[in-house]
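Why does residue order matter? Because the sequence determines the fold. Keep that principle in mind as you read this record.
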Amino acid sequence: MVIAVSTSLSENVEKFIYCKVEKNIIREQESAFTPPGGKAALIRQFIGLEIDLLIAGKIPEELEADLREAGIAVISNINGAPEQILKQYLDGTLDF
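Structure:
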């Protein structure tokens, strides 16, 4: 499973982390910036990175719907540092 975490995503350039997870253990972790070109470019980027789940703070509802339509699960309105959010998700303590 590949999980992306960001404090927010919009059509402005934002940074996010993504990691490959196996059996709730992070195998690889990278950071990236969203590409210019709006939500279509972002969705293409996520598909290219094989993102299965996005955990994010505030994101536009339309973007969330489009990500879901592309097969990417979304947990939104989560606040905190991306690394802490990821840790909480993996240990089952993330409140969503």
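Helices lie at 38-48, 61-69, 82-91.
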